[in-house]
Design brief:
- The chain is of the alpha/beta class.
- The chain folds into two domains: about 140 residues, Aspartate Aminotransferase, domain 1 (Alpha-Beta Complex); about 250 residues, Aspartate Aminotransferase, domain 2.
- About 35% of the residues lie in helices and about 15% in strands.
- The strands form three sheets. A seven-stranded mixed β-sheet has the order 4-10-9-8-7-5-6, with helices on both faces.
- Helix 3 packs antiparallel against helix 11 and helix 4 packs parallel to helix 11.
- The protein binds pyridoxal-5'-phosphate.
- Pyridoxal-5'-phosphate binds next to helix 5.
Length: about 400
């Protein structure tokens, strides 16, 4: 079968909830992917940062295969040897005392929301079921009913109501707006330190610090959704580390498994995470021995290969090179580490045609919000690969 045959099958039998590029991938290795027709591409999306460790990392693959031969699922009705070790290693690596394991990022976000609501009633003393959570315009926290209830993107929300109440939306990158929105019923502020899906929107320096101060002054918890920005992507373990901010609750996913298996987690200290009591929350697959073994290996790779440091160095280099490209279409290059957005001017007539042109030349990217090309390769990329990609990007950013 050829590319067009697979696309036809998808078209006929699959829900049309995505509009992928016309490339059918059959295998991958590190930063490279290969399609059914034998073409090779540099992956500059990394499955939205789930592949920080690169495709099919041999150590994570080995851990997955080894564990799959032993035991894959116990359910949390019984214990398993891998989860206990993952808890400990997550704590050692992040400094948070406890964690809870889920599967998808959206599920972890929901878990964080349940946790802060519980904190609101049991610790802060907010009247039951009246807790408010402040979120930001342009947010992306996943696709579940509650996560889209406070989305500001009509595409994600229209025709999906009624929505979950209890959220207050304020402008992003405006700490005064957060302060003004706080009421006695405010339980938490939840935000992304960089808004990836909104187009790599990078707030001004000091924003996160100001928000953290406002939260602690008002006895409001700060939840950072670092599902996309965390685990090395921006040049630190967490994007919040750039400002020395330690949120009360950290939500991670994506690269927590290096792309092998859906694994997400919520991290917090004991006074908060300790509020969950047996039976109050759970997941059949969350914290399975297979998930835990894969996550342990994925975290080890981040540490051993110093992926955060790599992202810092190579991201700075990549961004400098991109900024030097003369182009009639580029409005701005922004981001941190290897999370880079190229914002195009209106005369570029949309980012999609650039993604398609890059695909023809061997680079896979994804446009976001019509005007931004996101460049986020696996963190195992090297300088010579960037040096190969730059002229390709230069050519495409100058096409008519
Ligand atoms: C991807 C993402 C999510 C949702 O994760 P899923 O695994 O797709 O449910 C939530 N928040 C942010 C910031 C993300 O980038």
């Amino acid at each position: 079968m050829k590319t067009k045959d697979y696309i036809q099958l998808e078209q006929d039998y699959g829900a049309h909830n995505y509009l992928p590029l016309d490339v059918v991938i059959v295998k991958a290795d590190g930063v490279w992917v290969y399609d059914v027709d034998g073409n090779k591409y540099l992956d500059c999306l990394s499955a939205y940062s789930a592949l920080n460790q690169g495709h099919v990392h041999p150590k994570i693959m080995q851990a997955m295969v080894d564990q799959a031969k032993k035991v894959t699922l116990t359910s949390r009705a019984f214990r398993n040897d891998q989860l206990a070790l993952l808890y400990k290693e997550l704590s050692d690596m992040t400094g948070y005392e406890m964690s809870i394991l889920m599967n998808s990022g959206a599920e972890a976000v929901e878990t964080a929301i349940k946790l802060v609501r519980k904190w609101a009633y049991q610790v802060k003393g907010i009247p039951r079921h009246e807790a408010e959570i402040i979120v930001c315009e342009g947010n992306f926290h996943g696709r579940t009913m509650t996560a889209i209830s406070f989305s500001t993107e009509p595409l994600y929300r229209d025709d999906f109501g009624p929505f979950t109440p209890g959220f207050v939306i304020v402008a992003y990158n405006d700490s005064a707006a957060i302060e003004a929105a706080i009421t006695p019923n405010t339980a938490a502020v939840m935000l992304e330190p960089i808004q990836g899906e909104a187009g790599v929107i990078t707030p001004s320096e000091g924003y996160l610090k100001q928000v953290a101060e406002i939260c602690s002054k008002n006895n409001v918890l700060l939840i950072a959704d670092e599902i996309q920005t965390g685990l090395g992507r921006t040049g630190k373990l967490f994007a919040c580390d750039h400002e020395g901010v330690r949120p009360d609750i950290m939500v991670i996913g994506k690269a927590l498994s290096g792309g092998f298996y859906p694994v997400s987690a919520v991290l917090a200290d004991k006074p908060i995470m300790g509020l969950f009591k047996p039976g109050e929350h759970g997941s059949t697959f969350g914290g399975s021995p297979l998930a835990a073994a894969v996550a342990r290996a994925a975290l080890r790779v981040i540490r051993e290969e110093k992926l955060a440091e790599r992202a810092e160095l190579l991201g700075t280099y990549f961004m400098e090179q991109l900024e030097e490209i003369p182009s009639p279409y580029v409005h701005e290059v922004r981001g941190k580490g290897l999370l880079i957005g190229i914002e195009l001017k209106p005369e570029a007539k949309g980012a999609r045609r650039f993604s398609e042109a890059l695909q023809k030349r061997g680079i896979l990217t994804k446009e976001t919000h019509e005007t931004v090309i996101r460049i986020a390769p696996p963190l195992v990329i090297d300088k010579s690969t960037i040096d190969w990609a730059i002229p390709v990007l230069r050519e495409v950013l100058n096409m008519s």
